[in-house]
Amino acid sequence: MSVEAPAAIVLENLSKVYDLPPGSAGAAQAVAADNLNLRIAAGEVFGLVGPNGAGKTTTLKMICGLLVPTAGRIVVNGIDVERDPEAAQGGIGYLADFFSLYDDLKVWEYLDYFAHAYKMAPETIAGRVTEVLGVLGLEGKRGAFIGGLSRGMKQRLGIGRAIIHDPQVLVLDEPAVGLDPKGRIEFRQLVRELNGQGKTVLITSHLLHDLEEMCTSIAIIERGRLLRSGRLGQILGEGVRERRVRIMIASPGFALVEWLSRREGVTGVTGVAPIGAQFSFAGGEAELASLVKALVVAGASVYAVEPVGETLEKVVMGLSRGEVT
Amino acid sequence: MSVAPANPELIRNIRAQLRADRVVTVAVVCAVLSLAVGYSMAYTHGGPGRVWGLEFLRVALAAQTFVLVLGGGLVSLLAVQREKEMNTFDFQRVTRLRPLELALGKLFGAPVLMYFIVLCLMPAALVGAAVGHARPTFVVAAYVVAVLGAISIHALALLLSLLLERGVAVAGGVLFLIVLWLNPLVAARFWLDLGSLSPFYASDLSTQMTWAVMSRPPGTIIYVPGGYGMTDVLFGWPVHHAVVAVALYAGFAAWFLLAVVRNIKRDPAGYEIFTPAQALGFLFFINLIFIGFFRWSRWSAAEAQADLLGLNTTLCFVLGVALLRTRDRVRRLDARRRLSSGWLAAAWPAPYLAAGTLLVGLVPVAILQVIGKLDGEWDLGVALFRVALFSAWLLRDVLYLQWMNLRLGGRLRLGLLYLAVFYICTGIVFGTLNLFGTPSGLAFTAVFMPPAVFALRLGEWAYTWEVWLAALGAQILIAGLFVSLQRRTLADLSLPGRASAAAAGAA
């Protein structure tokens, strides 16, 4: 019998309706959360995915107690956020999508301020600040003014603020925005490390490839509605009923698409540049091996045969197109 | 709880604003300015002496008060606004800082540089006090008045910074500080035996020599230099103005701070300056000042009642507006089934406003009856009618604004604009027709402009009472109309699925 992991975040019938500013195009109200129900188990890296305006940021802010839901209930680490926001906030580290830091403070002063604001034991603060600076790779900037840091360093410092009090839940809203490729790789590594320490991470991002690499579970929302949620593998596997295969050849002039289209069990053939094709194949491994052998016999120089999996991007695009009207 | 030196928000401000280089620069500038002004004044007075000393003390204290009140007021006005713009405010709200800690950290932290400048100018003031042989108790009292007065203004500025949009807050705040500079309650001083509530009064206080208070003959104008300038009259008893100022500053600072603490960590969509009970408490606090310092002996009973109602008009209106519910709040109350049902919900905030207006109207009537200073113009029935019309009038206007605020898009500003245009245009037309100049015309105008009731006299009541009663009935009918409209709006807001349908295509 499997034991379900305790919930770090629970959303129960969560709704948020707000008025749009006068003069806004379309309707006068927006629904940022529409009866959302979600359970995020402790220790997960949970991705919240959806297009702009889907309600991701509003949902995250409600979880942090920054916005009050129109209806519904949020429980973080077993604490009702609306009833006891300060207690709940003690266990949450939050990073907003667009933010500034206090440019007139030094790096260590910034972390020291938030450590005190989160009511850490005073005797532990100096050590914790040093530890976090080490995790972020900012030891050399300890005494520097924040105003002089690069964008990436500021982003890291923002993450440092979110983890300074060692929260059990991290809520990160578009944390990779503005990071260069190296910074994104380091950030993914940092999230894995934090998750390895037992922290639950709730993260939103438009960089779906990053999420695919980091997340254990995801939820897809659009216009405040939950379209899908579950383990990443389960979501990616949904709807995959046939094996998709890509074959690449080095034989200019060979009519690969036409050749494949005539074979039994092959459907949905599309060309792939420079010379190749992608198709659905109904048979098993042995039938696929026979197909490749026949292709070689037919005169094609095959240099690659690979299975094609679903990507998060495709799943999201497939789900969000017209599902909510 | 860490609210004082260990307050993280205060420490953050001290670290950011009082860097060593800045501290040295400020100290040097203050020292040079003090020396230059001191030398200039000594030259004018023919050398340092008692007169020079007292004058130097006054100037130094005025400069300190200026820095603290105006400089501190402006930075407090921007304290929360700037954080909201930088998207740093949410990070403070999400910490475990308690609302009181955060509020106190900003109250004393935002103007911390101003406090430091005051400290740097202190030697100049002390030199002036020593040379001028100023009484130490008055110098200390002057600083208490200046600092407490500044704190109350900073608390108000912080509240404005929290509640208003940047442009509105800054414009309103600057206007407020200009009015403060020009001595607030200047109009009220016609009715109240109460001296200036401007903290700039501290420099006058610093050079006083006696704490003695003097009984004042009726009709004396306040603040005759060397006369009764430092004496207020509270419930008929002479009281030194410094004591009154300190008590009132502390009272106002507490009320403003309460409002800041109530809201500083809230979702901005759920801001509510006071609870209804607190709003009533604030109304009574102000009325205690009105009634306690009112110059009962100067006016006839009817005039006294009309004047006190007039003083309460703006106050009750502002508190009525502060109690208005937003669409967001109504939605949340409805979703949690905390919205009173039917007509009671539609009459919001009438019960609290009625309680407030009736009480502030009836207490003076009771006082006038008890003290018995009545004359031929006084009639209890007419006095009660005045209170009733005053109350109905404010209910009418506030219920109209509540309905506007619940309409799609929240049209409070538009409602206020319409109301202002209505009063201005009606006043122009009625004035042109000379309706305010005749008893029957005055009674007629009350149907549209109930403030006419302040001018109602007993002699006129005898033959125009039917029109006055019709005016009262009209207010009640119009108020009922807005209750009915609000009920429909509430029903629309509560319809299940309406929000989703309305939002389709918006998100």
Automatic annotation (TrEMBL), chain A:
Entry keyword set: ATP-binding, Nucleotide-binding, Transport
Name of the molecule in the record: ABC transporter ATP-binding protein
Example GO molecular function: ATP hydrolysis activity
Protein family according to the UniProt entry: Belongs to the ABC transporter superfamily.
Organism: Candidatus Segetimicrobium genomatis
Transmembrane spans: none
Residue ranges occupied by any ABC transporter domain in the UniProt entry: 9-248
InterPro entries tied to this protein: AAA+_ATPase (IPR003593), ABC_transporter-like_ATP-bd (IPR003439), P-loop_NTPase (IPR027417)
